[in-house]
Amino acid sequence: MGQATTRHNVKGANAVEREVDELRLRTQSLVEELERRIRSRVDGAKDAVDRIKHAVDVKAQLRENPAIAISIGAGALIAIGLGTWFLIDRGLKRNRPMARIRRQASALGTLVAHPERALRPREPLGRRLIGAIVITASTVLVRKLAEQLAGRVLNAPSNRRRLVAPPI
Predict the structure, then answer these.
(1) How many angstroms separate the CA atoms of 3 and 8, rounded?
(2) Which DSSP symbol is given to 36?
(3) Of 33, 45, 50, 67, which has the fewest Cβ atoms less than 10 A away?
(4) Do 153 and 16 form a contact (C-beta atoms < 8 A)?
């Protein structure tokens, strides 16, 4: 009877060992699949960041598309020329005697009709200009800090240990 119990224990131990091996293999394959998926997602994110960096790189875009750069430059020159012409023409029309008389009459009519508007204080141009400069500078600063942080996160070496299945 002692041999039957030993044989039964050996068969049970073998069955448990097989089940442990199967579980180990399943776990190892799940870990490998998860690692593969994570790697593919990270690679996709890195590719997206590279595409965005390339799209925002003005010098590279100018080298790759010189015709577009020339067109943009020509359009900018035309816009500046038209704007200058418009401002000069408008200034000449404003300085004509009848235009000045109309403006002064309109201002006098407004002053008589609504005197409280003339007494309302306006925010100085210098204060508005300083506010715009501060907002612009803070926007540029935050953008640079975000770019540096993103660069550090994406280029940082991984300190995590890779999961390795124990030897069988």
Answers:
(1) 8
(2) H
(3) 67
(4) no
